[in-house]
């Protein structure tokens, strides 16, 4: 059996398994960020005037903002003028079925094991495939249409459902929310739009796969999900990206709106290219995700499994505005090599009897830094608000860091807020026990880590849970002794 | 110094450096100058400063203050008695605005323990070695201001194997005929295997003028030394306090710090930091804060695990009434070398009124893997069931609530190992709850 140091070295040196690029011709916007770029993007996407104006408002806000300084890592130097803000596969003709999709693109997804093929589709997954910003194929549309569910690309929604977009765009994450949200507002390329009408329970998991491909393009997705009264939707987002040596910025925005008694479940598996073992390259994942429980007894639940990206920096949040609303956040964040994760959640209790639950599991290995940062705020009106937070950190190797920075602000004496955090390593006795039962160290670690993350993984929809478990095992198998 | 401009503005820009001082403490003048330039660099904090985001200190510095302060005050025996802990058999050290009053004090005579004015110890090697050296003071603007411009304070030194038959009670008297900004500074050094118990309490004599106290205490524990350090904060409402207590612990030393903030000053900010520079140490930090009115109580603690095999244990509990504001920020930092660290931290709060509020940041920053660290935080109110149970047994509301608050605080008061002090605290809690119910 190998000793623990060898195993740690092995994991620390492991290359990204999904690193490959696809050669598809790209149509690029000129490099640089100014009003002309924004007009170019807007014109390319044949957007109405109001959309352009909103983008320009975002740009004005962006110009006034500075990069934040409070994060627990050294901010990489980002030259936003060196990026190109628009890239779309050139073939623009309408596609009716998967046969018409570029075979090379399909092969890429095949390699990633993304369930875009018919078998998977039959398994009940409607996939809105985003390949560098523009949707190229959408399945199950007809079935969803029958129920009145709108599931389309953001661009399509702007064209076909302008009233809905106008009503909700920027209401949860305003164009001036933070510098990356403002940048996104100005230059967002495409994304997904979901509307679930009153009383409808979406019969299948909606999923979108994002890929970053073209060199030197940031990806600026924008997702808007609205669940009207008494509706339910579960949305999946999964990402893998080909390896690149140059850093790529991803500044997406996700907005969720849940009306009376509605429920939105949003799950993410993120496995973007984390850079090589020396910390070169990798994706900067600076995403703004926020949901509002607008209606009474509404519920929003975030689940995330974060294993990729050079830097993951995001705080999926829930504003509990309606009385009796409920917010949940489940997270597993794994970092290794020189990866950095500064992630957590923000929960704002505004309405009465609102409840929230935060479960965060951080695993850090190699030279990485893994930070949980979260805010639980109880407003003066939020009588009987209830929060429970648990964040655990697992350290693998003695060169990594695990940090917990919770912020708790309670303005109502009837609220009950609880927070607990622990930090530890995998016990030698646990490994020994499993070894003794004939399970080799690598498998034992995978078993223990999977058990450790179980509470979060259980929250994932079945299709995703399988992928996530595999991902955790690939990322961490044999990493501790 | 009482200009029209706010004192905040004056301190930020107009305050003259330490060169103006004509004291004989030339030996530490270079350190003072260094601290002054550090202060200039740091500047006073605003709510944008992460460490001060929940405490708007600007608000408390708006009034006009004078830096000059009375060195003597007529303290009557009654006043002293009121400031003392009843039934406590102890040595007594009385300071007026940070200056030792030997005529009012009963100092330990002879032996290996000396208590003197800091200004008299300027040439002492210990002072030279430790003054303003603590790493955590370096980033604190108020500590830098204190080091540059402090008036005077105490120097306590306990020799090798020194021990005392009873605790030392230090009574800080703050008095000012006009609003004053008072800056005392103390240094406590315990040499190898020395043990000491210190009980600090404070009293304000004049409630027509505001006393703003910016105090710094540095504590050094050499190998195997043990210090019990109680700090009882109960002055008058019309005062504002920023305390820095920074301890350095060498191998095998034990530091037990107790912080009791009672209904008193409108602003209390405690910066408590402990640097563990030797292995096998034990650190216990206990805090209890009972706040009423518009009191603002802010506890910042920092435990810095630099070396392996150290244990730290922290428990802070708060009961907040009326419009009181509570802030707790606790940080445990475990460095890469500090394997086999055990570090625990807990903050519990009881809100007893609609408008009281609490902000808490229990933080862990960990770079070593073979450690056991945890922190916890809770906020809530009385359990109605417990109250109902007690009432149904014929216990009156006041007594029942008092019982529950006492039970809540028990984890901390139980750790106090001086019976007179325990009784004193129980009485304070009783008064506090009674006050809460009568309002």
Automatic annotation (TrEMBL), chain A:
One of its GO terms (biological process) is iron-sulfur cluster assembly. InterPro entries: Fe-S_cluster_assembly_SufBD, SUF_FeS_clus_asmbl_SufB, SUF_FeS_clus_asmbl_SufBD_core, SUF_FeS_clus_asmbl_SufBD_sf, SufBD_N. It holds the Pfam family SufBD_N. Residues 46-202 form the SUF system FeS cluster assembly SufBD N-terminal domain. Residues 210-451 form the SUF system FeS cluster assembly SufBD core domain. Belongs to the iron-sulfur cluster assembly SufBD family. This is Fe-S cluster assembly protein SufB.
UniProtKB/TrEMBL annotation, chain B:
Residues 27-170 form the SUF system FeS cluster assembly SufBD N-terminal domain. One of its GO terms (biological process) is iron-sulfur cluster assembly. It holds the Pfam family SufBD_N. It comes from the Bacteria. InterPro entries: Fe-S_cluster_assembly_SufBD, SUF_FeS_clus_asmbl_SufBD_core, SUF_FeS_clus_asmbl_SufBD_sf, SUF_FeS_clus_asmbl_SufD, SufBD_N. Residues 176-408 form the SUF system FeS cluster assembly SufBD core domain. NCBIfam families: sufD (TIGR01981). PANTHER family: PROTEIN ABCI7, CHLOROPLASTIC (PTHR43575:SF1). Belongs to the iron-sulfur cluster assembly SufBD family. This is Fe-S cluster assembly protein SufD. It comes from Chitinophaga pinensis.
């Amino acid at each position: 059996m190998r000793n623990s140091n060898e195993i740690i070295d092995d994991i620390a040196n492991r290359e990204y398994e999904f690193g490959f690029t696809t050669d598809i011709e790209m149509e690029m916007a000129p490099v640089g960020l100014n009003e002309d770029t924004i007009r170019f993007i807007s014109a390319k996407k044949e957007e109405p005037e109001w959309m352009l104006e909103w983008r320009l408002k975002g740009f004005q806000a962006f110009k006034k903002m500075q990069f934040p300084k409070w994060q627990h890592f050294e901010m990489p130097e980002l030259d936003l003028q060196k990026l190109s803000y628009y890239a779309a596969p050139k073939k623009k003709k309408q596609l009716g079925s998967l046969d018409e999709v570029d075979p090379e693109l399909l092969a890429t997804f095949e390699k990633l094991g993304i369930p875009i093929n018919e078998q998977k589709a039959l398994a009940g997954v409607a996939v809105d495939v985003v390949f560098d910003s523009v949707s190229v194929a959408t399945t199950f549309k007809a079935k969803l249409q029958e129920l009145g569910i709108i599931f389309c690309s953001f661009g399509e929604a702007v064209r076909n459902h302008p009233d809905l977009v106008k009503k909700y765009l920027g209401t949860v994450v305003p164009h001036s929310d933070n510098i990356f949200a403002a940048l996104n507002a100005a230059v967002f390329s495409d994304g997904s739009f979901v509307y679930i009408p009153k009383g409808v329970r979406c019969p299948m998991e909606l999923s979108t796969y994002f890929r970053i491909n073209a060199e030197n393009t940031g990806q600026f997705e924008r997702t808007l999900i609205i669940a009207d009264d008494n509706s339910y939707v579960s949305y999946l987002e999964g990402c893998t990206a080909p390896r690149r040596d140059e850093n790529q910025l991803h500044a997406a925005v996700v907005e969720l709106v849940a009306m009376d008694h509605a429920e939105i479940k949003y799950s993410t598996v993120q496995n973007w290219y984390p850079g090589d073992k020396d910390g070169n390259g990798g994706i900067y994942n600076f995403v703004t995700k926020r949901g509002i429980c607008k209606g009474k007894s509404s519920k929003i639940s975030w689940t995330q499994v974060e294993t990729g990206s050079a830097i993951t920096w995001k705080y999926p949040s829930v504003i509990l505005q309606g009385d009796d609303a409920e917010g949940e956040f489940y997270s597993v964040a794994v970092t290794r090599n020189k990866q950095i994760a500064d992630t957590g959640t923000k929960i704002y209790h505004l309405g009465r009897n609102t409840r929230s639950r935060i479960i965060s599991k951080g695993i850090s290995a190699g030279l990485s830094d893994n930070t949980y940062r979260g805010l639980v705020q109880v407003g003066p009106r939020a009588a009987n608000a209830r929060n429970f937070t648990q964040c655990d950190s697992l350290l693998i190797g003695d060169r990594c860091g695990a940090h917990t920075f919770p912020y708790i602000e309670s303005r109502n004496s009837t609220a009950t807020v609880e927070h607990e955090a622990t930090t530890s390593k995998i016990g030698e006795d646990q490994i020994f026990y499993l070894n003794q039962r004939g399970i080799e160290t690598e498998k034992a670690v995978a078993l223990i880590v999977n058990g450790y993350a179980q509470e979060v993984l259980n929250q994932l929809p079945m299709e995703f849970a399988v992928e996530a478990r595999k991902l955790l095992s690939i990322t961490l198998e044999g990493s501790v002794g | 110094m009482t200009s029209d401009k706010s004192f905040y503005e004056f301190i930020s820009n107009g305050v003259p450096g330490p060169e103006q001082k004509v004291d004989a403490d030339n030996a530490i003048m270079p350190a003072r100058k260094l601290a002054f330039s550090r202060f200039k660099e740091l500047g006073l904090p605003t709510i944008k400063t992460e460490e001060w985001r929940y405490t708007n200190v600007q608000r408390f510095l708006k009034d006009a203050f004078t830096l000059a302060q009375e060195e003597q005050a007529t303290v009557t025996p009654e006043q002293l008695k009121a400031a003392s802990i009843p039934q406590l058999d102890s040595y007594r050290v009385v300071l007026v605005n940070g200056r030792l009053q030997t005529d009012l004090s009963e100092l330990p005579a002879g032996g290996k323990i000396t208590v003197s004015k800091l200004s008299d110890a300027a040439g002492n090697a210990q002072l030279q070695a430790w003054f303003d050296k603590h790493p955590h003071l370096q980033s604190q603007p108020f500590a830098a201001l204190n080091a540059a411009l402090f008036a005077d304070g105490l120097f306590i030194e306990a020799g090798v194997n020194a021990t005392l038959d009873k605790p030392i009670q230090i009574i800080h008297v703050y008095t000012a005929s006009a609003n004053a900004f008072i800056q005392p500074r103390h240094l406590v050094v315990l040499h190898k295997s020395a043990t000491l118990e210190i009980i600090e309490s404070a009293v304000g004599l004049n409630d027509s003028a505001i006393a703003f106290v910016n105090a710094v205490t540095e504590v050094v524990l050499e190998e195997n030394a043990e210090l019990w350090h109680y700090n009882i904060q109960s002055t008058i409402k019309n005062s504002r306090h920023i305390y820095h207590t920074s301890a350095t612990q060498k191998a095998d030393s034990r530091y037990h710090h107790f912080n009791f903030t009672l209904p008193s000053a409108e602003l209390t900010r405690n910066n408590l930091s402990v640097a563990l520079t030797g292995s096998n140490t034990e650190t216990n930090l206990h805090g209890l804060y009972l706040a009423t009115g518009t009191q603002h109580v802010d506890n910042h603690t920092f435990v810095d695990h630099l070396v392996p095999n150290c244990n730290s244990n922290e428990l802070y509990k708060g009961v907040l009434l009326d419009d009181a504001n509570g802030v707790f920020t606790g940080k445990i930092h475990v460095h890469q070398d500090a394997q086999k660290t055990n570090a625990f931290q807990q903050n519990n709060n009881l809100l007893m009124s609609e408008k009281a509020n609490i902000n808490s940041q229990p933080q862990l920053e960990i770079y070593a893997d073979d450690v056991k660290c945890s922190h916890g935080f809770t906020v809530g109110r009385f359990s109605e069931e417990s109250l109902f149970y007690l009432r149904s047994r014929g216990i009156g509301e006041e007594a029942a609530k008092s019982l529950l608050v006492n039970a809540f605080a028990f984890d901390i008061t139980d750790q106090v190992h001086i019976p007179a002090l325990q009784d004193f605290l129980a009485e304070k809690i009783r008064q506090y709850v009674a006050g809460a119910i009568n309002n």
